[in-house]
Amino acid sequence: MSKLFEILQKIQAKPGMYIGCASVSDLFHFLVGFKTALRELEVKATEEEMDFYREFQPWLQKKYHVSTSNSWAKIIMLHCGNEQEGFNTFYRLLDEFQNRDKSLEHQQKVTASYEVVNKS
Predict the structure, then answer these.
(1) Fewer Cβ neighbours under 10 Å: the N or C end of the chain?
(2) What is residue 72's three-state secondary structure?
(3) Which of 102, 96, 103 is nearest to 63 (CA)?
């Protein structure tokens, strides 16, 4: 498992132990520091981690129909009443983000299978 998603699971289970409280803003700042620390230690990001770093923000902007230079945490907070709700929403969105490719891959496989059968 990737370091990023391993620490995210730990934070979700015990936010107080890692970031003080269940806060999407505190989570965001923690992850910025975490990414910086790994880069300084020359730890290579996995493909899944790079997907999160590069694509989560644009995916979220598209989902919420916003164009902004604000962080994903601020975008989430636009739709939440408090930091804890934002924290919980982040994990729901992360799950949706991670599963987006699986449904797309399934659609592509079905389409490819259909095309092969029709060519026969």
Answers:
(1) C
(2) helix
(3) 96
